[in-house]
Amino acid sequence: MTTHTQRPAARGGFGRLLRAEWIKFRTVRGWVVAMTAAALVTVLLGLLSAAGSHASCGAGPVEVACPPPVVGPGGEAVDDKFFFVHRPLAGDGGITVRLTSMTGQIRKPGVTPGQRNVVPGLVPWAKAGVMIKESTKQGSAYAAVMMTGAHGVRMQHNFTHDLAGRAGGVSPQSPRWLRLTRSGDTLTGSESADGTNWTRIGTVTLAGLPQTVQAGLFATSPGDLTVTQGDLGGSVAAARFTEATGEFDQVRLQGSASGGWRNDDIGVTVGPDGAEHHPGRAGQSGGTFSVTGVGDIAPAIEGPTAERPLSGVPAGLILVIVVAVMFITAEYRHGLIRVTLLAGPRRGRTLAAKALALGLVTFAAALPAVAITFAAGGRILRDNGNAVLPVSLLTQARIVVGTAALFALAAVLSLALGALLRRSVAAVITAIAVIVVPHVLATTSVLPDSAAQWLLRLTPAAGFAVQQSIPQYAHVLGHYSPIAGFYPLPPWAGLAVPAGYAALALGLAVLRLRRRDA
After folding, report:
1. Which of 475, 472, 481, 479 is closest to 150 using CA atoms?
2. How do the domains of the chain map onto residue ranges?
3. HSE value, Cβ hemisphere, 13 Å, CA-based, for 426
C-alpha cells in the first residue's frame, strides 16, 4: 500500500525569517530608540536650519519679504526679463524679420579702481529675434525664434524647451531671416539665409493660447558668468551685467495685427528711487528697428530650493549606520549568530531576510521624518521671506520617497559591511567614510568642483542626487556644482549607485558567511 506523507515546511522559510528579524529588532530597546533618534535628528536639524534662514528685499527705507519667483506655464520658476517691441495679433498669422546685426556689451572686472570696465561682446546665450507671447505678463506662454551669441539660431518655447537651428553668426554681409507663424495653438519656427529658401526649425503646441497674442521683436542677455577657484577649495561664481542689441529690418506681420508698435521692458526692476534698474531700449527709423535688452528668458536655477530643509539627513544617516552595524555585529559579539543560522540554515537567505527587515524598518522610520521636514521646513523658509523655487508634486514626491530610500540603502550597506568586517567600530567608520564623508566634502568649499563631482559619481554618496529639485538645462549657463546643489548624476541614477554598492557588499557578505563558520 502506498502512503503519502505531508512534507513539513522548511524551518528557514523566507517569510518566517523576515518576521523573526523584525521581532528581533523591535525587542531590543536600544535599536528602536536609536532609529527613532535618527528620525528626530533629521527633523530637528532640518527645521532649525530652515528657521535660521532669513531673507528680505529692499522696498525703500524698509525691508520686506522677497516676492515669490515668477512661475512659467509648467509650474517651474523662471526668469522672464527682456525688451519687447510688439503688436497685438488676432487669430492665425505670424511675423517675419531680417536680422542684420547682433552686438552687445559685457561688464568685466574693473582694471582701474572706480571705473567700470565695459567691453564689446556677446555672452553665449544672448538672444535677439522674434516672439509670439500669450501676453506681456511675466511667465506667460511663448515661442520664439532667435539668434544667440554663440549657439546659432534656436527655437525656444515656455522657458524649458530648446531646439537647435543652423549654427553660425550674423552680420550685414550674412544676415539671418527669422519667421514664426501661428495656426491655432501650433507655432512653427523657420529660418533662411536669403528670405526665399526656408528651413523649418520646429513646431510646438502652446495649449490654450488666447485668440489675441503679442507678436514682435525682442532682445535679452543673461549675466556673464565667471567661476573662480576658492582659496581653500570649492569655487565662487559671479554674474556681471551684459546687454544685447539686435538690428532688424524688413519686418512683416502676417494676419490681423492692430494698433502701432509698443515698447515694453518686461520684468524690469524699479529701485527705491523709482528709477529702472538696467533698463532696455528700442529705436525705430523707417522700417529698421534696434532693440536692446538685459536679462534672460529661461528657467530660474538660483535661489532657495525645496530640498534645503533636508540638511539634517547626513546626521540622521550616521545614527542609522550605527544601528544597522549593531544589528549584525551584536550577534557575532554575543555568539547569537549560531542560533540565527540554526533557525535559517540557508545562510544567504537568512542574511537577505535580515537586510530586508532592516531596510523596511529604516524606510518606515525615515519616510514620515523626511516628509515632515520637507513640508514644515519649506513653510518655515517661506515664512522667513525666502522665495523658494517651486517644483512639481511629482518632484516633491521623488525627493521625499527617494531620501527615505537612501536611508534604507545606507542601512543595508552598513549591515553588509558589518557582516563582512564583524567589528562594530571598523564597520561604522567604513560606512560613514563611504556614505556621509564624501557628501560633506563635495558640498562644502573643500574640494575643487571636478574632484567633488567625481566623488558624487563613484561613491555611495551619489544617492544624495535624489534630493536635487532643479534640473540642469543645456540652454542655461549656470554654476552647476555640488556646492550650488547640483549633482553630476540624474536623481534615480544617483540612487542606483548606493543600491549597487549595497548589493555588492551583501553578496560578498553572503559569500564569506558560507565559506567561514560564524
Report:
1. 475
2. 14-52+304-515, 78-299
3. 9
Amino acid occupying residue 250: Q
Beta bridge partners of 202: 189
The closest of 454, 439, 131, 397 to 264, measured between CA atoms, is 131
Mean pLDDT of the chain: 89
Task: Provide the 3-class DSSP secondary structure of residue 215.
Answer: strand
φ/ψ of residue 169, rounded to 5: -115, -160
Nearest to 180 by CA among 99, 292, 293, 283: 99
78-299 carries CATH number 1.20.144: no
Instruction: Please give the Cα distance from 140 to 199 (Å, whole number).
Output: 27
* Inter-residue contact 421 to 430 (CB < 8 Å): yes
| DSSP state string for 153-202 | EEEEETTTEEEE---S--BTTB-EEEEEEEETTEEEEEEESSSSSEEEEE
Per-residue confidence band for 297, with pLDDT thresholds at 50, 70 and 90: very high
Residue with cell 542655461: 476
Question: What's residue 5's pLDDT?
Answer: 42
Q: What's the number of CA atoms in the CB half-sphere (13 Å) around residue 328?
A: 34
Cβ-proximal residues to 200 (8 Å cutoff; 6+ apart), any chain: 188, 189, 190
Contact 166, 175 (CB under 8 A): no
* Neighbouring C-beta atoms of residue 398, cutoff 10 Å: 20
| Sequence-separated (6 or more) residues with CB below 8 Å from residue 57 | 63, 64, 65, 66, 67, 385
- How far CA 366 is from CA of 33, 276, 429, in Å, comes to 14, 49, 22
**What is the rounded distance in angstroms from the CA atom of residue 182 to the CA atom of residue 184?**
6
Q: Distance between CA atoms of 127 and 80, rounded to whole angstroms?
A: 13
DSSP for 234-277, please give it.
SEEEEEE-EEEEEEEEEEEEEEEE-S--EEEEET-EE-TTSPEE
What would the pLDDT profile of 266-283 be if each residue is shown by its tens digit?
998 877 677 777 899 999
Q: Which three cell numbers stand for residue 370?
A: 523626511
Q: Which of 225, 188, 185 is nearest to 206 (CA)?
A: 185
Total residue count of the chain as it appears in this document:
518
Q: How many Cβ atoms from other residues are within 10 Å of residue 129's Cβ?
A: 29
Cβ neighbours for 509, distance < 8 A, ≥ 6 positions apart: 351, 416, 417, 419, 420
Residue 186 to residue 92: CA distance in whole angstroms: 10
In the structure grid, which three cell numbers stand for residue 93, read together? 498669422
